[in-house]
Fold each of these.
Amino acid sequence: MKILFVNNGLAGGGVEKLLNDMLPLINESGNYCELLILFDDDAKYLESLRNNGVKVQIIPKKIYNKGHFQRILYIMNYIKNNDFDIVHANEFPLIYYCSIIKTILGKKMPKLVMTEHNTDNRRRHIKLSRPLEKLIYRNYDKVTSISDKVQEVLLDWLRPNDRDKYVVVYNGIAAENFRNSKPYERSDLVPEISEKDKLLCIIGSLTEQKNYFFMLEVMESLPDNYHVLCLGEGPLKQKIISKIQQKGLQKRVHLLGFRKDAARILKTVDVLVIPSLWEGFGLIAVEALASQTPVVVSNVPGLAEVVGDAGIKCSVNNVDEFTRAIKKVTNDNEYARQLAKLGKKQVNKYDVRKMTKDYLKLYKQLLE
């Protein structure tokens, strides 16, 4: 099989991490895949993919800057000229672009697949979006969702007649990379930290969804011996820095930016905190479970499903619940060990090799 994946870019998000882990495995399986992206700004996984033998095609900037029509035309010609069996779209606006291309190409279009990654997006808050989205999704031969809850919410939104084409393929991680990682000396990450201090971590883009401002409120409510590492970059960085300064948390909140050593950091910290407002899956939660690091998360659809009984779930934006949960897991060693044991079992459901096999099986079924 010859498969084309299309994605916005290769920044440090969960979708990009999945592509980075899965695409080399597809090529290893004896099939062929490549990736077409809209832009290479901040493309953190570009070098990794190319080093692992995956071709990455970037739409030329002069084409990209001309707008939607020229981008669609470029992608359509790329598909026509390269004899793909499958085109797999991720993220908006590419799920729209590929649907439009299928309308134009008709039977000349390869089988078309897309993945729904979240339980919410801005389009679902616009009344006129529903009929448009029903038309867009109708053009796909298969629509996969990364968790049961993501699919449930999507079907409720679209109310499609062809429900059989909607399936769940769970996200996966390279669990052995996290199990086998070696922790840092904590002072290597926070020079002024002492043995009595507690070290938390929050990982994700600096965006509204990841709820960093709420995490700062939680830090205010925790004792002074609690530190948090913030791994990620994004548009809210300067506002977050300003809020840290306003709250006087400069010595306890540490912005580390995007890091490729998250596996080692997860092995080092006492707990991973995910206070997100919404999450379709929560890949980083599975990575923490594989690292046997306790997780405290927002009780939101998708994320709560993935964590199961292996983490502590708190009400969204509830400072008291998050504070109590963090204190409990960082001060009760036996409780933390119980969570780690449950996490080891939970993570077995979410293996990147199983995910890759599930997608390959789905592609083959479409081509039969």
Note: The mean pLDDT is 94.
Amino acid sequence: MNLKEYIDDADLVLVGIGETFQDKFETIKVQDEKNITIFEEYSRKKYLDSCIADEVIDAYKKLEKLIEGKNYFIVTLCNDDKIFKTNINPERIVAPCGSYELLQCEEVCTEDIYLMGDFEQVLANGEEPKCPHCGNPLVVNRLGCKKYSEEGYLKKWNLYMKWLQGTINKKVCILELGVGMKYPTVIRWPFERVAFINEKAKFIRVHDYLNQLTEEIKEKAVSVKANPVELLRNQIV
């Protein structure tokens, strides 16, 4: 499938990146996934920092070329930050599931968000970073932690909402890549709604098996049963 034709024909491009692209950390073993320690999280962060290139990053770089010069916004369910290893404008990417770059107070005593890099020496010394306000542990600001703080992504989310308002009556290419049903209220259902209310929208859903389309949008949509990472990597740009 030639995605470039759909993207080139659009005024705006909305991209959704799903769980298919998320790093599984298969080489980083943890004792208990539900009670992962900050040191195990730090190991994951160091691993992610070392990922200069892999299949997913290659796919992102191909996406970068596809949307180059377009007015776009990207919503990603991934929190591994690999998409930021490209030249895609980071201000046009929102990651509502969090980031391994950021820390928060375990009890969310304030709205403050911290860079993990600022606590690099503390973690390297085997010490647990503490919240400077209440003294509770700092944890990675990602969905799944004890009390997830949304402050890490809200600014970009508000920017995304404002951008969406500008898609009305515009030719918008909606590209949904590898989005399953884990968090359907973030990408899958909202993207379907954008396609439904915009008569000029073109919707492309790419997934290994969850590529079905709803009756309401099927006349303006394309369903592709394929691995979205491989599909992107094979694009000619």
Note: The chain has a mean pLDDT of 96.
Amino acid sequence: MVDRYSLTSSAALLAERFSVELPDHYKPRYNAAPTQLLPVITSSGSSGISWFYWGRPPHFAKSKNLAEKIINLSTETLLERPVLKKMLMQNRCIVPADGFYVWKKVGKKTAIPHRVTEASHKPFAFAGLWEEFEDEDESMVHTFTIVTIKSNDLVLALNERMPVIFDKVQEDIWLNPHSSEIELMNILHAYPSNKMGIYTVSSLINNPAKDHPSLILPTPASDQHGNLTLFD
């Protein structure tokens, strides 16, 4: 499961990279987590940024853990159910990011957080799908999920799944409302290992309430309690 990522780029850099306008309230995110309101670019509004909840809004999620199928959808299931196939053909989006977090299990109670980035540390985009529904107050709510795939060799040592990461050409295909099912499925594959980097970060990333620049700094490997470990 992929349940944390970062988007630390400036508004100017994102505007140039994705050819969109960003609102004044945009701010970098160092620990983006489910239920938070986060920026996406949809196939129906690719000239601007939309703000959707990842998985579910906080008042829907309450204190329960969000199911993996709400925050992630696997590429292998997209054509299995009519509702998912409909989302694939009609409700596509990309999720701007510049890193995501995975945890390496080194014992029953020990997991080491790592940040995975593009080798040049430039921003990129995850493949995403979005949906809208009416809440109990009859207000329209928009949510998104990140599409995942079996990890490449670099990430597989830590986690079986990783987000589908696009280059610019693939983004254009994904956001094109006229792309065919075959075209869309053909671009859903793991990003090459040799184009990515990975390093350990602070265990403070485990707390979704934490969101500050020091979270993305390389940090000696430590477990979820902050204790240094010999594992890397």
Note: The chain has a mean pLDDT of 89.
Amino acid sequence: MSRRGIVAIALLGAIVVGSLALAGAFRRHPQPVPPPRVEAPCVVIAIDPGHGGRDPGGVAGDILEKDINLQIATRLAELISAQPGLKPFLTRSEDITVPNLDRLRAAEAAGAVLYLSVHTNSYSDPGVHGAETLVDDTRAKDDPSWILAEAVQKELVAATRARDRGVQTQALYLRHTKLPAVSVEVGFITAADEGRALLTPEYQEKVARGLLNGILSYLERVNALPPGG
């Protein structure tokens, strides 16, 4: 064999030996593997924009309750999304017909910890105005729904300066869920000043922030606030 061939074989051997040594080094000192990223569980808040689709809700001229409900609920969902550890669930995000019981079942399937239905009120007398929060009349006084209703009503009135019509009880479809559940009538579209205000983004922002503050107050009272919330 020529001298050049001997040199080539020696060089190849050195490369093989070096590769084996390097592989052994990696086996002895494996590269650290980052731990899998675990997403922190979120507290799901069900927000129900009342009515929709074929059901307009209250009507005042060309003003439809279903539209205002969706606008406020959508803004509330955005505010909830910005809170650490909270996640909104909207029972509808567009102008469609969704049966009430389907809304409740969807909220339960989403793992919601509470259910808040957003409504605007209407009445034949334009002098009637204000905000109120409703609890189903089958709920006992120690039901968490009452805590939720009181917290939401207090913060909604504080944010909007609307007339405080208090927490009321009546027969509602909310009896068909075990979730803490309330229906909020944020104001009257048939009231002169209040009805005009409810059409503005500025007042809807106040309403949404009041509802958010009520939800946060409730979660704090029942020790359900997520870490950092």
Note: The beta strands are 43-49, 59-60, 63-64, 86-90, 112-121, 131-136, 164-170, 181-188.
